[in-house]
Amino acid sequence: MRIAKTALAPKAAQTARSAVSAISAVTAITTLAAVASLTTLTLLACAPVHSASNSTTNSTTNTITYSPTARAYHFARLVDGTGAITNDAVIVVDGDRIVSVSSGTNSVPASVPKVELTNYTAVPGMIDVHTHMTYYWDHAPGSRPYGAGNTRRTPQELATVAMENARLTLETGVTTVRDLGASNYTDVMMRDRINQGLAIGPRMFVAGFGLQKIMPPAPGATPPAGAARAGGAGAAATTAPAVPGWMRSRIANISEIAGAIKTQIDSGADVIKMYGSRGTGADTSTAQTFNYDEMKAAVDAAHALGRRIAIHSYGAAGGRDAVRAGANTVEHSIELDDATLAQMVQQGTIYVPTIDHNRYYADFRDDYGYTFEQALGLDAYRARNLETARRAHKAGVKIAMGSDAVHMMFGQNTRELGLLVQAGMTPLDALNTATVIGAEVLGMSNTLGRVAPGYFADIVAVEGDPARDVNALLLGVRWVMKGGAVVVDKR
Ligand SMILES: [Zn+2]
Question: pTM value?
Answer without folding.
Answer: 0.85
